[in-house]
Design a protein that fits this description.
Layout lengths: L1 H18 L23 E7 L11 E6 L5 E2 L4 E4 L4 E3 L5 E2 L4 E5 L12 E4 L5 E4 L11 E6 L5 E6 L14 E2 H15 L17
Antiparallel strand pairs: 1-2, 1-10, 2-7, 3-6, 4-5, 4-8, 8-9, 10-11, 11-12
């Protein structure tokens, strides 16, 4: 009887082990994730200034934002543009949780019209990309996510390395302008369900 009971217990233990699932979750530091410390880092392209007020050459920049709860090592990551530029990020570059990194590069590396920038990690995998953006005015406004790390893009007072200004200061949003563009195409009888639209003509001065 005891042998029979021991055998049944052994069978129960084997069944429990077979059904168990072990998952290892890693944080930004490469170790196991401590729920108390929060979730790993998450880096996005947060702001793009392709047409600064003092001339474009050597003055264009964009901003990365770490919206996660852990520090982000973005060393050896790079950015690619529509014009074919490849902009590397220096090894060992860390963006703290909730922090910003302003990336500058020489020359005219960001197009004023129909620009799209892709962020890739050290393995070449895509991390984030911007929508197609146009900025035809030489002023101190830039395209920025609103709020920082959010899904909406707004044309607003540039804020490199700082939180984006309040929404009421925005000259327009990308989603509103895209809708205006589609309406205009419908009125002209030249509407297409897909393709790129230049929304810069619909921005207020």
């Amino acid at each position: 009887m005891r042998i029979e009971q021991s055998f049944l217990v052994l069978l129960a233990l084997v069944a429990a082990s077979a059904s168990a699932v072990f998952v290892e979750v890693s944080g930004a530091g490469g170790g196991e994730l401590d729920p108390v410390d929060g979730w790993p880092a998450s880096v996005v392209i947060n702001e793009v200034e392709s047409n600064p007020p003092d001339g474009d050459e050597d003055n264009e920049w964009l901003e990365l934002y770490n919206e996660g709860d852990g520090d982000a090592d973005v060393g050896d990551w790079w950015l690619t543009t529509v014009g074919g530029y490849v902009v590397p990020i220096e090894s060992g570059t860390i963006i703290p949780a909730g922090g910003f990194l302003v990336v500058e590069y020489e020359g005219y590396w960001l197009r004023n019209s129909d620009e799209m920038v892709i962020l890739r990690d050290e393995e070449g995998d895509e991390v984030d990309r911007t929508p197609v953006l146009s900025d035809d005015d030489d002023d101190d406004r830039s395209w920025s996510r609103h709020p920082d790390g959010g899904c909406e893009w707004v044309l607003i007072q540039s804020s490199p390395g700082l939180p984006v200004p309040p929404m009421e200061l925005a000259a327009g949003t990308l989603s509103d302008l895209a809708e205006d563009d589609k309406m205009w195409l419908r009125w002209t009888g030249d509407y297409r369900a897909s393709g790129l639209w230049d929304v810069s003509d619909f921005l207020g001065s």
